[in-house]
Structure prediction request, 322 residues.
Amino acid sequence: MAKPRIIVTRKLPYAVEKRLKEVFTVALNPSDQPFDAAKLTSALQYGDGIISTFGDDLNAEILAAGAAGKAQIIANFGVGTNHIDLDAATQNNLVVTNTPGVLTDATADIAMTLILNATRRTYKHETALRNGNWKGFDLVSGLGMALQGKTLGIIGMGRIGQAVAVRAYFGFGMKIMYFNRSKIENVPIPGAQSMETIEDLMEVSDVVSLHLPGGEDNRNTISRARLNLMKNTAYLVNTARGDVVDQQALIEALRAGIIAGAGLDVFADEPEVPAELVAMENVSLFPHIGSATLDARNAMGMCAVDNLISHFSGRMPANKVN
Prediction:
C-alpha cells in the first residue's frame, strides 16, 4: 500500500523532516515561502494530509475547495488554531490537530523576558549604548520598575499562563492574580487569586500578561476601555495572539501615558508592525519567537508527526481539536 502523501506548508526542523520522510511520502517546502490561497487549496486537493502553521489562512472557502480532493487531516504545527476555520473543517470531514504542551516552557520564558525587558526599559538603554549615546554610569536616568512584591495579572491561566506564574512568583516574588473563563483547579502558586472579571484584574495589576487564544471569540479582548483601567505605572505583555489586543488603542494608550509600557511578541497583522510601536522607547518588540528554541520546535514537529501517524493508523489523534 502506498504511503500517505503529506504536504508541508513551511520549512521544518531537520529532525522533523527526516522523520516525516521515513513514514510518509512528503512534499517539503525548502524555500520556506508561505503558501498563498491557491497553494493551500492545491495542498488539500492533492495531499492526504498537510502540516500547516500560523499564517496559513485556512478559511472556509479554501477548506471547501480543498475538501473535493484527498486531504483527511490538517496537522497544525503549533497550539493556536485561529488561522483554521474549525467549523468548516468539521463540515468538510477534515480532522484538525495541534501540538499542545511541548512549547509551554519556551513561550513562558519569552513572556518573562518581555516582562523584564519592559519593566527595566532595556530597549531604551541598549539603543543608547549601540548608538554611542551612553555617557557612563549614572544614578537617575531611565529607572525601571522592580518586580519584587508587584502584582502580575494573568489573563488565560492555562499551561503557559501557569508556567509564567511559577516563574514570576518563585523567581521574582510577584503576587499572582488571574482571570480564566473556566475554573482552574490546583493552581501551583500559593495565594494566587482568581478575579471575577478582566476589569478587576486590569485595575490592580502592575503587569498584565496575556495567554488566551486568538480568533473572533477573543478579538480585542484588551480594548480601549480596559486599557484605560490600568495603572499609569503598569505594563502590558502579549505572547498570545496579536488580535486579542486593540492595537491602535494600545498605541494611543502608550503615547498618552495611560500605561507605562509594553512587551509584544505578536501583532495584529503579522509580519506588519506599526511604525508607531517601532519608534517607542517604552516598548520591547520580538518577532513572534515565543516557541523559537530548537528543543521546542523539534518537539512540536514530532507531535504533529505523531498526530498524522495516529490518524493514518486508524487511531484517534491525541491532539484532535475539532
Q: What stands out?
A: Residues 294-312 form the longest helix (19 residues).
